[in-house]
Amino acid sequence: MDLDTIIDTLFSPTGDPLVRGLTLLILSLVVAIVIDRGLVGIARRVVSKTRNGLDDLVVEAMHWPAVWSVLLGGGWLWIAPYTEDHPALRRVATGVLATMAVLLWTWAAARVGQAGLKLLVKHQDRTALVQPRTLPLFDIAWRTIVFGGGTYFVFLAWNIDVTGWLASAGVLGVAVGFAAKDSLANLFAGLFILADGPYKLGDYINLDDGTRGRVTEIGLRSTRILTKDDVEVVVPNSNMAESRVVNESGGPNEHSRLRVDVSVAYASDLDAVEATLIALCMDRDDLILDDPQRAPLVRFRSFSDSGIDLQLMAWIEKPEKRVVTTHHLIKAIHRRFAEEGIEIPFPQREVRQLR
Predict the structure, then answer these.
(1) CA–CA distance, 216 with 200 (Å, rounded to integer)
(2) CATH code at 312?
(3) Which pTM was predicted?
(4) Bigger pLDDT: 225 or 4?
């Protein structure tokens, strides 16, 4: 078969439909092979010279959707002449082939989007919007857009009018919103927490109700906190958004300063008291942070009824060690004061009998 015959077969309506269909199918197969072996290979060599891995993933993700889209298009051109007299069969065949193509490209777009978000998180110094704490938010938004768009194009492939569906979904959404207002409140609060980042995974936080522990999970509905008693507390995100959250790990590091209130008698040598407390902290380097820039301090606060009130301030490595460190410091202070003869005053009252 010469070239003129092939052209006449492809474009003449009187040509043999079987020959025309087979020829178009073979041409689509040739184009797919050219894309697979030629264009993709060239693209791989080009992107291999770049530093980031996103373009490599884009090429790999678009590889098979492009090849199969050409093959699906060739398949449709092959069966199209045989379904001209059967509109229902033609509609089903078109819908099936188009749906397969939409699913392929939806899968590729989802992969590319997720890889792009991970790359932005890896280079978070270049953007203030995409951070590790906001990654789940953008991931969910991207998946919603991609799969929502894929669903829309699938409906179009089957000639389904989605206008009525969207109107019904709007009415249904209002009803669901009223029925699940608490769940929606937790959902939106979770999105705001992920976006604003008042705390992150691993932070040690305090809540208004006295809950104190380390954040183990931040979900769209709730936040999980592991307390010192190894009890996991699940707090709805709407409560977290309305509570006053003290993040003890929110600074440049997790170091935390504890304060121990002490009182000494008026007759005490205050310089000796201060030196004793500082030396005691230096001896407990297993509890107190050994950092010259965060050395222990003693500050005298006030004159009380029974003695002079002061405060010992020392830095610890992690906030959760506050209770146990305070416990050991109070014992050590009591023992050291007894050894040094420093009196810890206590209230005294004189009771006189009136005659």
Answers:
(1) 9
(2) 3.30.70.100
(3) 0.54
(4) 225
